[in-house]
Amino acid sequence: FNCTADLHRGNGSIVRTFRSSGVNRGQACKTARQLCEREASRMRRRGRTAVYCTTEPRGGNRPGTLVTRSCSVEMVSPRFGVQQIFQGYATGTAGSGVRMKACYNAMDQCLVNIFRRQACRIKQ
Question: 82 has which bridge partners?
Fold first, then answer.
């Protein structure tokens, strides 16, 4: 069995494709996904936060395609503006609200750190 994982920029364009084969589809996709996520982590450490991976069994889109999404939340002060940005990441099946989960993750990080009149907002 063969599987591919595509590394995407935030705008959806593919940066790189990782291919893997295995004794079953699950193993092949897991290996391809791990390779993609490893490269995505490297890119995030270098400041490219809007990258994500999608995994497809050979033969095109199928239900259950895994995607990773990111979301940024800004901590803002009425007096000083944006003071800090928090990044959230989530992985799940396409169409299951993965970006919303990433936003919840980033919002939780922000809310733990707010002080006095600061607020948290999702960065558009």
Answer: 76
